[in-house]
Amino acid sequence: MSITKQPLLYAGSQGEKHLYTLFDSGANLSCINPDHVPDLAHLESLGRVRQVATAAEGHYIEINHRVTLDFYLEDVLLSDEFLVVPGLSEEAIIGAATMQKWRIKLERSAVAV
Q1: 113: pLDDT strictly greater than 90
Q2: Is the pLDDT of residue 109 over 60?
Q3: d(Cα 113, Cα 66) in Å, to the nearest integer?
């Protein structure tokens, strides 16, 4: 599993904002902290609630919403869906599915497109 963190510019229908983003190959999906969503985009209902397991045994987080956001990596415009995760410890997480979709490679202390 590879992890690195850097500030990225995010843009949505409501505005744009820089967020410290964790690139985590151990996380499947991309996520965003709900505190930052009002500045960026309108919440979109998932339709079916997702129960996501946490590191604590038997503990799950209920996820009800998602947002679609653009983000810029090395001045390259990328876009994906982010699950809005209550209590997320990071501002945003780019997961493995997004990294595969955009061919993002994690290198020592850096991220490349």
Answers
A1: no
A2: no
A3: 24
- For residue range 17-66, list pLDDT tens digits in order: 999 999 998 889 999 999 999 999 999 999 899 998 877 888 899 999 99
Q: What is the pLDDT of residue 108?
A: 63
Residue 34: C-alpha distances to residues 29, 38, 91, 103 (Å): 15, 8, 9, 26
Are the C-beta atoms of residues 21 and 7 closer than 8 Å to each other? yes
CB 111 within 8 A of CB 104: yes
First to last CA, the chain: 18
Distance CA 89, CA 75 (A): 26
Rounded Cα distance between 8 and 71, Å, is 7
- Residue 111 exposure: Cα atoms within 13 Å on the Cβ side: 26
Under DSSP, is residue 99 helix (H, G, I), strand (E, B) or coil?
helix
Q: What's the CA gap between 49 and 80, in Å, rounded?
A: 19
